[in-house]
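[job 0412] stage=fold_complex status=start
inputs:
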Amino acid sequence: MNHSEALKQMAVERYLLDEMGPDARNEFEEHMFDCTECALDVRTGVVFIDEAKKQLPKMAVVMDAGPELAEKAAKARRDWFAWLRPVYMAPVMAALLLVVGYQNLVVLPGLRTAANEPSLAPSTPLRGATRGDGDHQKLTTTVVQGLSIPDVLPADGTGYVSYVVELVNPQGKTAWSKTVVVPQAGEPGLTLTIPGRVLENGTYMLKVAGVDAQGARTPVATSTFDLTVTK
Amino acid sequence: MSFFPTVAIPERGGRFAAGRGASSGASLGPRTRGVRSAFKDAVLYSSPSPGTRRTLQFHSFDASYVENLCAGDVATQDHFVAYFSSLLQIKLRSRLRSAQRIEDVCQETFARVFATLRRDGGLRQPERLGAFVNSTCNNILFEEYRAMGRNDSLDDENSPEPVDNKSRNALEIAASRQEADKVREILRELPQRDRDLLKAVFLEERDRDEVCAKFGVDREYLRVLLHRAKQGFKTEYVKRLGNPTMMGARA
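[job 0412] stage=fold_complex status=done
writing structure:
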């Protein structure tokens, strides 16, 4: 065996792994004793293997967790409900608790107070639009006061079973609509109260249409007003 | 097993003993004491000679080398014994289990080699010195086998193991530590599967084919794995061998 043959056959590795039969081993040893390169390779390999035998058991204790960890990580990746784990849910629940607490302790009581507390606000009767009338009624209110329009329904409801009251906003869209039964004679008129927070500057239209027993609608009153809302 | 090198010069009937400072091909230190002649009734102990800082690791075995050996040049003798001790240890440990028996065969090998070298005519092919050492060792092994019988073990189960009283100095300890660190680094860089493969082969000593089948690799993969790991370690190892202050470095 010469050096190039030893290299080609990976003779050093075969020798170190004890893969050689007796004849091949003797042949390689004869070469190794004469070849300083192969001798160095074998010596290096022996030292490495001897040291690796000492190191591998120590590494195995630490590294044995590796496959388990990898498996756990793989499982976690496949776990669609991983977000339900406490590590994620705990802060989410805490945040929800804060929101719910704030709403229950601050916002809702404030709203109840506002809803139950008597308040004073001006009422603004509307005049109906007349044909050719280019001047709209001008109204001013505040965000806090809103708008209170009394007697939106006609006094005489003969021929109708109900009225449809419709509020058109400055964009021309129906912002609000409601159907009410024609009041009986002697009953008080209805007042339309609009919260200030939903009002904006611009021209509004309040339409009232009567609905007969057959369901046909007939416009009975239309009021247009220019609204200015101040804070 | 460590391959602590032994030094050349035996007493009559004595042993080739390790001198402090003898290293496997590394170079040399304080003056040899008490050498009367190279091979004949020579005093036992030696230490590397001073002033020689060249490394002998890759010294070629030629006529001048053999001539120096026969002339009793201490540096050459140190190198010779250190170099071939490690190879003989590697060769013999696959055949003999007892460290004492291995040491005995090593000693006998050196004794016969030197005896042949100092004969008139000596070694006909100086460049084949290594092969001559190997064949001398083979002859000794053959004699052992024949003497003990084919079915008997060559290991003397009852003989006490030689006490390892070879102390190491700080440099040797540091070098061993560096080697250990390097091996650890190489092993850490391997994938877990490769580590497990090496463990199964070298620690658990399982059948190679069974191990390869279990890990889904072939023998070639195992050889390449070992080759790459060994090459990665080689730089560190050669660095240590080349250190002229290293004493008694193993292998």
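[job 0412] summary: The beta strands of chain A are 137-142, 147-149, 162-168, 174-181, 192-194, 202-211, 217-230.
[job 0412] exit 0
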